[in-house]
């Protein structure tokens, strides 16, 4: 049996490999789709909950849950936009 030696790649080398294969459909597996059917429950510290409840009132939200949902959705959209920007930057650097 032949023994494979593992080569430790730098982060930059890994990035170059990923970017070079980004448009090659055969290099990727089928996407995995995950859907949660029930709402998730999240615990947060009492002080943070109180601050969030105050801001929910300031912004005239119907409930703390509605306010937190809005804030989380907004933050996720910002994070996703930042992630897309980083991907595009990496792609441009590889070209």
- How many helical elements? 3
Instruction: Give the oligomeric state of the chains in this entry, treating copies of one chain as homo and distinct chains as hetero.
Output: single chain
Please report the total strand number as a whole number: 0
Characterize the overall form: elongated
What portion of residues belong to β-strands? under 5%
Largest sheet: none
Q: Work out the radius of gyration.
A: 21 Å
* Overall mean confidence score, pLDDT: 86
Fraction of residues in helix: 55-70%
Question: Explain this structure to me?
Answer:
By secondary structure, this protein is mainly alpha-helical. Helix content is 58%, strand content 0%. The chain has a domain at 45-95. The chain has three helices and no strands. α1 crosses α3 (64-94) and α2 packs across α3 (64-94). It starts with 10 loop residues before the first helix and ends with a helix. The relative contact order is 0.10. The model has no long low-confidence stretch (mean pLDDT 86).
